[in-house]
Request: fold
Amino acid sequence: MQASSTLAAMQAADALRATGATVFDFGAGEPDFDTPENIKRAAADAMRSGKTKYTPTGGTRELQNAIIGFYGRHFSANYEPTEVMATSGGKQAIFNAVVSLINAGDEVLIAKPYWVTFPEVVVFAGGIPVFIETEETGFLLNAEQVERAITPRTKLMILNSPSNPSGRVIPPAEFERIMELLAERNVYVISDECYLRFVYPPAEVFSAASLQPELRTRLCIAGSFSKTYAMTGWRVGYAIASGEWTRAMLKVQGHSTSNPNSIAQSAAIEALNGPQESVAEMLAEYTSRRAWLLNALREIPGITCNEPEGAFYAFPSIQGCLGAELNNSEDFARRLLEEEQVVVTDGTGFGADGYIRMSYATSTDQLKEGVIRIKRFVERLV
Ligand SMILES: Cc1ncc(COP(=O)(O)O)c(C=O)c1O
Reply:
């Protein structure tokens, strides 16, 4: 099993920091904001009032209802508590969904570039990841690409929009075409919506929960509190699926981790039901950083970048910088760290050599100095 390239980038940065060096870090896969105060207060209250015991495996009824309420308000979806479970992060939702469904030899469609965990979980479950190339469409997945990849052994497709690492957002109409195609072929779908709320207009916030029920019978939505509410360390997320799939996922969770942390569950209820200004503030900040970063990157010779419509990553191509000195994006990331103390994540781990992922969940000052250094590094090469 491969170590996560995102975590590898973080470790390399930590090792350099330990030597006393100042590091310009574009590696982070998490918000640089603190968890909002109202959410922390809810957790403190939960502890004081004794909400410190086991809860049902799939989370408290109150949290299930908060999740159902959110999807009802925003996407007009009607879910039952038997179709919703809380998990220890979106990652566990994906793990539960794959492990409860996939048998040896089942094929699972994954578009490139992909979040590193997707193929690893599929392989863990005995399945076969089948990758879909999307470079020709600027990493924007479409129904034709999916259709070409389906075989009689295709059991599942994992969709992720907004995407980590590309930031691309599948337009709602195209998402629906993909879902129609998958439903026709009886293929199950995991829609990883961990970056659901971080979308930059004119792109639209879209959840698979808003599709007609016929397109949702084999769907599992994996959601997370980590990014939206700056709660990465709290470890809380959720899965929404049919009653049958949810029962199977509850078995996996019940015999592995049991319920997610009871205190984090209370915090998550406040996150969904409490004031939402903090989400808008974070989005506004990401919006201005994104605009700044894209402009700055486009001024660097040898670097090109598609516009990311969501999440908080840019995924530029560094192919124009490869040649005599650097063979691939791994060389690029390593040398950039050694020579300019700038951390970026090598695209190879996401299935896209020739690209690097840059997180702009970092302060504007860091962004500015980091980009000056990348430019200096690239100008020495080109
Ligand atoms: C695409 C994607 N899905 C899921 C997750 C899981 O997040 P968590 O387990 O913290 O909810 C992440 C985190 O980086 C992610 O980038």
Q: What stands out?
A: The first helix runs from residue 5 to 18. DSSP finds twelve helices and twelve strands in the chain. The CA atoms of residues 86 and 238 lie 4 Å apart. The chain has a mean pLDDT of 95.
